[in-house]
């Protein structure tokens, strides 16, 4: 990064199964206006708009940002559209931040959304794979065998996934924007929910949500001005990284993909992270299916390979149990999943935490946090580090 | 003293980034034998091979495409196999024409941490009925339910020009006649002929006032570009086409809310890119319909001395999602060869020129 960049405004909609009260434009505008108000800005103050979402078929509109230009105040400005599968919310945040880090713009509005109730996301995600029998039904069908490989490899007990499912839903009870609020959530409730893709029960899977997320990324100057105007501090970006690898080839480690490890290494180098579990105060990580928490704990270097499930089991990632490295305090993807926005929600929640503005799900004294998103067949990764202090 | 190694004047703080290699597929009406990955593979090989580099020499990869052409989600995912991103690479994708993928790469190159990037884009118009596919790009509540196709919308625009006295059908035919004649010199052109404007006016209307000649062909194709910064540009290219200005702007979506005879987004992008700072030798304009070239030329203030669309432009070949990136490649080729010292390249997206990108390329 040539110039400093920071998150100076944050907005998000309540996530629900169906937001029938708003159009697509109404949905994205809700998040955008909230982010602008948080930054003490109006649409006129914005230099460029960067939009991200997952496949256009989820709403049935090809390149919908074209139609959304006036709703997002983009008329007369540069408007950009990112699509990198499930990681898109994260990569959109990164593309927007580079517009500031490169010194090209001062204030960039970035918005990610999905209005999944406009279609059936599960079947939209059931993509036929070349040279494979078409047996998939939803992303869970794709990831379940990879999870079983992880269980086999690590020797993790079968109930670890259910523990994540309970933990993230307990976190979600503290987040008014979360889609799922399940006050009675328990191990028994998860276990008694229907088995979808062995070993994943229904309650170990993410929901399908309508929702939008937005951030204003500002330069050092813009961050100072926003703080002076609003009294709210910025979240400084200390590093950003993206990595991709092919969907399939012989020898690819789908449990702990090389792209994930390379991406984290690049990121940690930029941000000076040597011991992630100690150096981060919390993390928002893309866990759409419960077992991805222990898998990413290992891949992201929070523990040795094979030990991820032990952290989950010990409550290290639970803010309810005062764990030392709380993960997904917002409730995570398991509690809200407007796919195109899910990655940005991870990034945005890390910024909320380092700014001390997360409300009931705020972790005390967060100085530095990790945001991560992944997509495709566990092959696209985007990550950032934000901190309360300037880089 | 040899100018090799010298850089053009840039806005303060900007890093010189040049287009150093370009390749495109043989634009065809219908590619039945190869899928997108198989089409891209030789093009990516050529864009690297032209300058003797490999994927290991670029620090970033960015692509442009749209799922709605292939009719399935995540069409860009398989396309990555044309590059072979192993070991894993820093990579991104825009659901836009490849010209915007190039913009993303240019932004990253500005930061100075990488020195080169690969940009590619692809699309097969033949996979479905393009006129129906493009209607799904419109406002889903108020416009798409009417299923207006791109030709119908462009015809409204052309008629508005006639009604305002800005151009006539003969002017549209003159653009088409010149473009297709220029295309005779473009080995990648899909439609090229030597016919007078008068003879073109004898064609029947497709959608009045547009006759067949004023419409772009349906094209399957793909393209790739390598960008390199600073000294790296000279290492790989005798005379790099440096990007001295690049900007893009969008207008409101509804065609009923715009004056379709003008392109204010092109005008602003052109001003920001510095088109008028010096003389322009060549302009490659992404004008899928003949009359749009007139709107774009006016918006960019291009004078009579400018050679517009020497490749034949989008009237010669219009591969969806690549036709904009190809304009940048065609402009760069003319800098490399010394035919031009300063070129303008333009890309468009959305109904009736809703969104536009302008780049200025200069050789030293």
Please supply descriptive tags for the structure shown above.
heterodimer; A: alpha/beta; 13 helices; B: Peroxisomal Thiolase, Chain A, domain 1; 10-stranded mixed β-sheet; 32% helix; 20% strand; globular
Itemize the secondary structure elements and their pairings:
The complex is a heterodimer of chains A (391) and B (364).
Chain A: E1 5-12, H1 24-39, E2 48-52, H2 65-68, E3 79-82, H3 88-101, E4 107-115, H4 121-124, H5 139-154, H6 160-172, H7 187-192, E5 195-197, E6 200-201, E7 210-219, H8 220-230, E8 235-244, H9 258-271, H10 276-279, E9 282-284, H11 292-299, H12 308-313, H13 339-355, E10 368-375, E11 380-387
Parallel strand pairs in A: 2-3, 2-4, 9-10
Antiparallel strand pairs in A: 1-7, 1-8, 4-7, 5-6, 8-11, 10-11
Chain B: E1 17-24, H1 36-49, E2 60-64, H2 67-70, H3 75-79, E3 91-94, H4 98-110, E4 116-124, H5 130-135, H6 150-163, H7 169-183, H8 197-200, E5 205-207, E6 210-211, E7 220-229, H9 231-236, E8 241-250, H10 264-273, E9 282-284, H11 290-300, E10 307-308, H12 323-336, E11 342-349, E12 355-362
Question: What's the short story on this structure?
Answer:
Chain A has 391 residues and is of the alpha/beta class. Chain A has 13 helices and 11 strands. Chain B has helices at 36-49, 67-70, 75-79, 98-110, 130-135, 150-163, 169-183, 197-200, 231-236, 264-273, 290-300, 323-336, and strands spanning 17-24, 60-64, 91-94, 116-124, 205-207, 210-211, 220-229, 241-250, 282-284, 307-308, 342-349, 355-362.
């Amino acid at each position: 990064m040539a110039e400093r960049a920071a998150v100076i405004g944050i907005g998000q909609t309540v996530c629900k199964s169906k937001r029938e009260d708003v159009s697509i434009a109404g949905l994205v505008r809700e998040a955008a206006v909230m982010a602008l108000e948080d930054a003490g800005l109006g649409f006129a103050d914005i230099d460029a708009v960067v939009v991200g979402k997952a496949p256009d078929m989820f709403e049935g509109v090809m390149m919908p940002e074209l139609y959304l230009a006036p709703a997002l105040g983009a008329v007369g400005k540069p408007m950009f559209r990112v699509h990198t599968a499930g990681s898109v919310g994260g990569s959109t945040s990164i593309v927007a931040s580079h517009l500031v880090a490169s010194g090209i713009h001062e204030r960039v509005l970035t918005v990610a959304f999905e209005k999944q109730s406009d279609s059936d996301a599960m079947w939209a995600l059931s993509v036929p794979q070349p040279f494979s029998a078409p047996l998939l039904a939803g992303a869970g069908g794709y990831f379940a065998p990879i999870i079983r490989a992880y269980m086999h490899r690590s020797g993790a007990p079968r109930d670890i996934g259910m523990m994540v499912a309970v933990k993230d839903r307990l976190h979600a009870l503290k987040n008014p924007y979360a889609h799922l609020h399940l006050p009675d959530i328990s191990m028994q409730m998860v276990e008694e929910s229907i088995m979808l893709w062995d070993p994943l029960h229904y309650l170990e899977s993410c929901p399908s949500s309508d929702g939008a997320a937005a951030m204003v990324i500002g330069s050092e100057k813009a961050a100072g001005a926003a703080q002076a105007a609003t009294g709210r501090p910025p979240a400084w970006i200390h590093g950003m990284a993206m990595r991709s690898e092919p969907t399939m080839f012989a020898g690819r480690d789908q449990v702990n993909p090389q792209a994930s490890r390379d991406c984290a290494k690049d990121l940690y180098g930029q941000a000076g992270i040597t011991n992630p579990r100690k150096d981060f105060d919390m993390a928002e990580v893309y866990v759409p299916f419960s077992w991805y928490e222990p898998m990413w704990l290992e891949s992201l270097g929070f523990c040795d390979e094979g030990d991820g499930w032990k952290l989950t089991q010990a409550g290290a990632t639970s803010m309810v149990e005062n764990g030392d490295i709380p993960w997904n305090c917002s409730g995570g993807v398991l509690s809200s999943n407007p796919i195109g926005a899910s990655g940005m929600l991870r990034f945005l929640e890390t910024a909320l935490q380092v700014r001390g503005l997360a409300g009931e799900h705020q972790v005390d004294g967060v100085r530095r946090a990790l945001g991560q998103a992944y997509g495709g067949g566990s092959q696209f990764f985007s990550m950032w580090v934000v901190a309360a202090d300037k880089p | 003293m040899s100018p090799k190694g010298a850089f053009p004047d840039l806005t303060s703080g900007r890093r010189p980034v040049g287009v150093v290699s370009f390749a495109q597929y043989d634009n065809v009406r219908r590619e039945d034998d190869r899928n997108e990955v198989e089409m891209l593979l030789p093009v990516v090989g050529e864009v690297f091979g032209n300058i003797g580099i490999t994927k290991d020499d670029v620090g970033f990869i960015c692509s442009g495409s749209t799922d709605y052409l292939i009719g399935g989600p995540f069409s860009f995912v398989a396309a990555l196999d044309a590059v072979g991103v192993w070991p894993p690479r820093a990579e991104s994708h825009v659901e836009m024409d490849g010209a915007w993928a190039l913009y993303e790469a240019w932004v990253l190159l500005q930061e100075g941490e990488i020195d080169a990037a690969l940009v590619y884009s692809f699309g097969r118009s033949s996979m479905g009925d393009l006129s129906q596919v493009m209607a799904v790009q419109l406002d889903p509540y108020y416009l798409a339910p009417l299923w207006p196709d791109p030709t119908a919308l462009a015809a409204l625009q052309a008629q508005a020009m006639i009604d305002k006295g800005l151009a006539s059908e003969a002017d549209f035919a003159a653009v088409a006649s010149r473009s297709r004649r220029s295309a005779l010199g473009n080995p990648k052109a899909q439609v090229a002929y030597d016919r007078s404007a008068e003879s073109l006016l004898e064609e029947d209307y497709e959608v009045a006032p547009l006759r067949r000649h004023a419409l772009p062909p349906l094209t399957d194709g793909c393209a790739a570009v390598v960008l390199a910064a600073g000294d790296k540009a000279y290492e790989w290219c005798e005379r790099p086409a440096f990007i001295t200005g690049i900007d893009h702007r969008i207008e409101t979506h509804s065609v009923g809310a715009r004056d379709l005879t003008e392109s204010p987004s092109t005008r602003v992008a052109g001003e920001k890119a510095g088109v008028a700072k010096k003389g322009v030798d060549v302009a490659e304009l992404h004008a899928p319909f003949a009359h749009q070239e007139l709107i774009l030329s006016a918006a960019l203030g291009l004078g009579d001395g400018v050679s517009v669309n020497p490749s034949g432009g989008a009237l010669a070949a219009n591969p969806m999602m690549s036709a904009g990136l190809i304009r940048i490649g065609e402009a760069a080729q003319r800098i490399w060869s010394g035919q031009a010292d300063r070129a303008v390249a333009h890309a468009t997206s959305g109904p009736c020129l809703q969104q536009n990108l302008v780049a200025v390329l200069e050789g030293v």
